[in-house]
Write a structure and sequence with these properties.
The protein has 342 residues and is α/β, with parallel strands linked by helices. It is built from eleven helices and ten strands. It starts with a strand and ends in an 18-residue tail after the last helix. The structure holds 5'-O-[(R)-(carboxyoxy)(hydroxy)phosphoryl]adenosine and zinc ion.
Length: 342
Amino acid sequence: MTVRILAIETSCDETAAAVVEDGRAILSNVVSSQVAVHAPYGGVVPELASRHHLENIVPVIEQAMAGAQATFADLDAVGVTQGPGLVGALLVGVQAAKGIAFVHDKPLIPVHHIAGHIQAPFLAHGEIPLPALALVVSGGHTHLYEVPGEGRYLLLGRTRDDAAGEAFDKVAKLLGLGYPGGPVIDRLARGANDRAHEFTVARIKDGSGDYSFSGLKTAVLYHVRREGIGPVADPASVPDGIRDLVASFQRAVVTALLRRFRAVAETRRPASLLLTGGVAANSLLRAEAKTMADELGLPLFVPPIALSTDNAAMIGAAAFVGWRLGRRAGWDLNADTHLPLA
Ligand code: KG4
Ligand code: ZN
């Protein structure tokens, strides 16, 4: 039997809906980005995010249904991101999912946003040997999880302060490079001298898989102040000095991310490695992670960029896991901004 799930994601600044079959086949995957709305502010403005989700949610769902050539009657379940995320943003998706599931008498499956990111590589690659070790790097998360079995997630490390994506966004904002910072820095760093500056990232020496990125961001800030570097006048023509600076910053982030990932992989000895979340779109991180995986003799699974950044297909994949495990929400389902991933 085929299980067809409509999945909805509104935890941050993308309004997204997808129809996914058996957690694998993507029948449609619609993402309406609010990047242009938040760009002038250099970050996501929660109130604006909620308002735009409200405007976009119905057309995005209609487009996903039309793209899948499905009617609500054809669905087996509705999956939705319950948390973590921005409360006003999450609520829009949760209410929409509840409405559709209630009216059409379909089961409602609550999904953890990070479970969605972790399931994204499964969407793209099918069978992945378990246990897997997953590095989830996004604007809100820098987490290392072990996936011992389907739908089971064991937290092995996390950032103690900023998420890696947040560090990219803050450094880009500091230099006037635009929002979101990750893709801009990735592009500017290509061909630049990433050895121009030696930025170091704090090493947490307690044997945990924990990360810390706020010191790196501060180091860049001090450097910028010391050298009197102002925000760039024209983001379309960035001086080489700033390209070298962001390239050096990017190299420091990637080195720190992979140092911990490697150390934990060496002690846990997983059967595979997963790299996922918005920052997994980073070209240097993708390349260096592949080198690391080859050195460790482990297969590495990285979703294509459209499935690395926030999307609803990954929520559909995680909802299918929830379906198989019998997870169902009642009509009292509420958004949970600090939902734990169990
Ligand atoms: O997963 P995502 O779309 O949303 C969250 O759940 O946060 O991740 C967004 C983050 C942003 O911080 C963005 O700057 C970062 O991912 N990002 C990148 C790249 N593309 C997106 N960071 C580094 N390099 C990239 N190419
Ligand atoms: Zn995300």
